[in-house]
Amino acid sequence: xxxxxxxxxxxxxxxxxxxxxxxxxxxxxxxxxxxxxxxxxxxxxxxxxxxxxxxxxxxxxxxxxxxxxxxxxxxxxxxxxxxxxxxxxxxxxxxxxxxxxxxxxxxxxxxxxxxxxxxxxxxxxxxxxxxxxxxxxxxxxxxxxxxxxxxxxxxxxxxxxxxxxxxxxxxxxxxxxxxxxxxxxxxxxxxxxxxxxxxxxxxxxxxxxxxxxxxxxxxxxxxxxxxxxxxxxxxxxxxxxxxxxxxxxxxxxxxxxxxxxxxxxxxxxxxxxxxxxxxxxxxxxxxxxxxxxxxxxxxxxxxxxxxxxxxxxxxxxxxxxxxxxxxxxxxxxxxxxxxxxxxxxxxxxxxxxxxxxxxxxxxxxxxxxxxxxxxxxxxx
Length: 380
Ligand SMILES: [Zn+2]
Ligand SMILES: [Zn+2]
Known about the structure:
Elements lengths: L24 E4 L2 E10 L2 E11 L2 E5 L6 H13 L7 E5 L5 H4 L2 H8 L2 E5 L8 H4 L12 H10 L25 H10 L3 H4 L7 E3 L4 E4 L2 E7 L8 E5 L4 E5 L27 H13 L6 E4 L8 H26 L2 E2 H8 L7 H16 L3 E6 L2 E6 L2
Helix pairs in contact: 8-9, 9-10, 9-11, 10-11
Bound molecules: zinc ion (2 copies).
């Protein structure tokens, strides 16, 4: 998922909105881009990167759950001269459905191990699913994957969204409507397609792992989500960026996610986390190829990270001005000053809350709760 799109219609279409193409391209030596179709939050595709080694492929972000994605994935693998049985690893960069949704099915069908950051968790974390996990026969290697899962230490389960209020008292962002409708339509087939991606390997920050014949360094990049993972190959300067740095849209910053590390008692500042994570990747030496989860590869990581920071600083300025204009106001009221009406809703509120909390922790605004809703005002 990405930001609620908030662009004037006069601007050219964003790269991330382009429809998926069937053609498979090699974007770096031994790294193929398989584009998979998605239709959420103004995105037209997700890039699934296939890292090739002598034993087969590791897939990074194998798309949405469901038959359409699966069909596209098999088609793209076929174009690369491979089948699902050639897949022995899946990397999930973060807990959004266009990234993790297809991973569980790939694991079941291929026996591939699932690789995430240590803090990865979804809104239906496997820890809360128990016996709902579908165990179908997989290829050789499945036993090893399951054995690895046994050793897996999962973080605490994600709180249920349904019926739970946000910290600011508004409606909780839920999975995108299109995703929920699709899950409902799948009905009894849902469990076959929506297999929770139980991680086999959870990478700590700076931990290394060999995938596709390259040694990658795990780079924890909380901000877009608290569990976001980038992978960096310092030898050839390749960064698998997930949704952390996208070429032409600004990643959504969710205010409701617990802070990295999972302590919900500690007030989080996802925007500060995001800025830190942008600084972290721009400090990596020798990045020449950035492979984003949406849009095309690019090289100017520092320039793009700077532009994204400028966007958020402008948003903070807008928020200061909106707060001055409205006086004490709720998150939703302030959100309506920041976003166009078509973007109004829980996602926009969540991002506004992230910005307000950033200002509050900097001592620029204060808030109090009135009738269950947080109300913010500028500190004079
Ligand atoms: Zn995404
Ligand atoms: Zn995302």
